[in-house]
Amino acid sequence: SAELCLLPALATLLPPLPGPGGPGPAEVGLGGLPAELRAAVRALVGDLDDLFSALGLREENFAVGALSRIVAAELAGYAPARNRRRTATNKASVVFVDRTLDLAGAVGHHGDNLAEKILSVLPKLPGHKTDVMVNMVELTALQTTDETCSILAPGCLAQPNDPAAKALWESFMNLKQKEAVMEARRHLVEAASRENLPIKMSMGEVTPEQLSSYIKLFRNNLKALVNHCGLLQLVLATVQTLKHPQTSKWDNFLAFERLLLQTIGKSEMPGVLNQLLPMIKSHNERTKDDYTCEDFLVLLVYIYSVVGEIESGKELDAAEEEVKKALVKAICDEPEPSPLLQKIT
């Protein structure tokens, strides 16, 4: 979008976590990092220099976190960057922040944002870090119950050649979910009117079923399909996200996170872990509303990130041991472990 640029080639770049008793990255420079991480930092510095050259920037660097300090220092001393800063006309402040300093933000569910939900729940487009697969079956006469219908190429979110779709994506990113869904309906109605499709405008709350019924109007009209293909992909992504079981779970996550923030000061860690324990269920005990193993890992990352430094003690050790046992059992009982669980095990 106009305000956000992602660098997916560097998606795996994470600060090293300090090992027990070992030096944290704060004490080491670039030379003290593992070879793979050194190469990734150099690649990031080169990419940023190219980006700043294209924008004609003379930057001033600030850093929060150990790895960020290394990246900022490398960029400051990078020869092509020094030459660029001599001639560039636009000034900018650049702030680097270690990703591990905001894990609570990355795993929390506080955003009332449609773009975030679409990117979280729909399957990734193969070979991409920042785009998703949109099932296009609804635009065809093909009737299939197969969720992963691979006869049709999937749609996606990147629609650079469709001005209406680009405008809609901006509103998915910048508006609250309710307003964004209303924007999706408005764009669909305008597109259908332009193609003289028999659309009945309805007021009130927008439902996924209502959006689906509007999409079906385009189905038998090839010209309308071609003209508005980008827009239809974004609206289909919206429908599939709103109907997705993970979206209804989003509110459960949010409720638990809020409860956690209220109780964390009172009962502290052992109490919170004991609260979590009965919710960890094996595959054959779970209903669709229960948390999966991955959901628990996300919750645990959130809990430990919010709590920060914790006093170790017998009560905490016992509670952690129980949670570990329950999680290991749940992971071992998974009939088809997800790629993430396979990686962890």
Description:
With 345 residues, the chain is mostly helical. The protein has three domains: 1-101, no CATH class; 114-243, no CATH class; 246-344, no CATH class. 53% of the residues lie in helices and 5% in strands. A two-stranded parallel sheet has the order 1-2. The two termini are 37 Å apart. The mean pLDDT is 87.
List keywords for this structure.
345 residues; mainly alpha; 3 domains; two-stranded parallel ribbon; 15 helices; 2 strands; 5% strand; globular
Number of self-contained structural domains: 3
Low-confidence spans: none
Structural classification: mainly alpha
Q: Give the SSE string.
A: HEHHEHHHHHHHHHHHH
* Cα end-to-end separation: 37 Å
Tertiary shape = globular
User: What integer value in Å does the Rg equal?
Assistant: 24 Å
Give the mean pLDDT: 87
The total strand number stands at: 2
Determine the fraction of residues in helical runs and give it as a percent range: 40-55%
Total helical segments: 15
Sequence of strands across the biggest β-sheet: 1-2
Largest sheet: 2 strands, parallel
Tell me the strand percentage band: under 5%
Protein name: SCFD2 protein
GO biological process, one term: vesicle-mediated transport
InterPro entries: Sec1-like
Organism: Tachuris rubrigastra
Describe, in short, the structure shown.
InterPro entries: Sec1-like. With 345 residues, the protein is mostly helical.
Q: What is the fold's blueprint, element by element?
A:
Blueprint: H1 35-55, E1 57-64, H2 66-77, H3 79-87, E2 90-97, H4 103-107, H5 114-121, H6 163-174, H7 177-194, H8 208-217, H9 222-227, H10 229-242, H11 245-263, H12 268-276, H13 293-307, H14 314-332, H15 339-344
Parallel strand pairs: 1-2
